Amino acid sequence: CSVSDFSSMGIRVDEKSLTEQLEIAGQEKRSTLEYHQALLNKELPYTIGGGIGQSRLCMFLLQKIHIGEVQVSVWNEEILSDCRKRNIHLL
């Protein structure tokens, strides 16, 4: 018996995750944009998401074991290496 969680709840972005995302994407200059500045200066409330977990539902229907098989993202070398060893093909 296995259990699948299809909910997708939580804070979507905060100042720390925004900074990390901009660095990973090489887009640090975007931190000067109005929205980014407001978020970085804690002038906006955090957005909280809650949905059906579309990617998790796709994982279930397509019988995938890693979310990267149904959703594009940036993965660190450790995850990429582990997935290669397990013959998991990330998007």
What are the key terms here?
single chain, mainly alpha, flat
Description:
There is one protein chain. The chain has four helices and two strands, in the order E-H-H-E-H-H. By secondary structure, the protein is mainly α.
Main beta-sheet annotation: 2 strands, antiparallel
- What is the N-to-C order of secondary-structure elements (H for helix, E for strand)? EHHEHH
For the terminal residues, how far apart are their CA atoms?
Answer: 28 Å
Radius of gyration: 16 Å
Q: Structural class, please?
A: mainly alpha
Based on the structure, what is the oligomeric state of the protein chains? single chain
Regions with pLDDT < 50 over 5+ consecutive residues?
none
**Can you give the mean pLDDT?**
88
Explain briefly what this protein structure is.
With 91 residues, the protein is mainly α.
Topology, element by element:
Layout (H helix, E strand, L loop, with lengths): L7 E4 L3 H11 L8 H7 L7 E4 L2 H9 L14 H9 L6
Antiparallel strand pairs: 1-2
